[in-house]
């Protein structure tokens, strides 16, 4: 069968149009099943036995199959463990720009293919006779390639096969970049989530409406035991608290009624014979969570004072990223002493104290010393003053 006739026959076999294939890859950024469907559709569109995404780690000079459609797992393992070093494309692919195609019969030669250990000892046992490879992404010493493999019974790849993917490749490149970025972000989120779950203090991240956007394992335990309530997207609430009080504290922290500042409250829970201590503070603007939404966010911290003693100074440092010196100054300010007295008590120059105070204002979101005192005073659940 002539190559042209062969391509016509395969297009009649239910192969999706390029637009449908492109949509599968974009939709597959967040849906692995759709990405896999896109890879499988790519094999059908090109009459290939398999399609693979190969990664070349330049610093370590090692190539490996990252993912594949229809490639036997043993074939993938053998390539990664041994035959990557024998792949003739390794020494030739540098001459190809991103988006260009390496086609074995043209760039390696049919005679060389017949005498190649790679083709005879690796590809032939798996019924593969031809490959074509396209560099997709090159960044940070790591390169990604799309490789298509065709069976021995079918014609060798040629320029027409590459041309049939001209409209697809730019979108596949973009989808790979986006997916890589999402995977990186998700990985970071999982690390952050694991770190939060290690904290014994229950933490909630809420928007100005009190809806919970994130919580750690300790906070989830409070929800399960109904120490706090947040059902079906309803605002976070605490049983036995005055109606609307927590909501008002959250709005204060989100800046709904003026300058955002932290505040605290105590709620006695007779059912469980505990007093829940609650701190509501603005989530620092530099926090990465603000990239997820354009809404102001607040951090709600809850715990049982009788069971857990929290260092207020450590909490302040962690919430606002204050330095130890700035935290000491904040405690001095809460005692009501002047800047001159604070400088003498701490043992630093007055100019240093003023510089530290400006940094505290910037980190806590207040603009005046009176606002700072008011904010720290509302945190009556913490003993800031020794």
Can you give keywords for this protein?
Beta-Lactamase; 19% strand; 386 residues; five-stranded antiparallel β-sheet; alpha+beta; elongated; disordered N terminus; disordered C terminus; 15 helices
The name CATH uses for the topology of the largest domain is Beta-Lactamase
Radius of gyration: 31 Å
Q: Helix/strand-derived class?
A: alpha+beta
Distance between the termini: 90 Å
Order of helices and strands: HHHEEHEHHEEHHEEHHEEEHHHHH
CATH class group of the largest domain: Alpha Beta
Mean pLDDT across every amino acid position: 82
CATH superfamily of the largest domain: GAF domain
Instruction: Report the major sheet.
Output: 5 strands, antiparallel
What does this protein look like?
This protein has 386 residues and is α+β, with helices and mostly antiparallel strands. The protein folds into three domains: 3-185, Beta-Lactamase (2-Layer Sandwich), CATH 3.30.450.40; 199-310, Beta-Lactamase (2-Layer Sandwich), CATH 3.30.450.20; 312-386, Winged helix-like DNA-binding domain superfamily/Winged helix DNA-binding domain (Arc Repressor Mutant, subunit A, Orthogonal Bundle), CATH 1.10.10.10. It is 43% helix and 19% strand. The protein has 15 helices and ten strands. It has helices at residues 3-11, 18-27, 32-45, 73-81, 104-115, 117-123, 159-163, 169-197, 217-224, 245-253, 312-320, 324-334, 339-346, 350-364, 369-378, and strands at residues 50-57, 62-69, 102-103, 128-139, 142-151, 203-207, 212-215, 263-269, 274-282, 297-304. The strands form two sheets. A five-stranded antiparallel β-sheet has the order 2-1-5-4-3. The chain has a five-stranded antiparallel β-sheet with strand order 7-6-10-9-8. A hairpin with a 4-residue loop joins strand 8 (263-269) and strand 9 (274-282). Helix 2 (18-27) runs antiparallel to helix 3 and helix 13 packs across helix 14 (350-364). The chain is elongated.
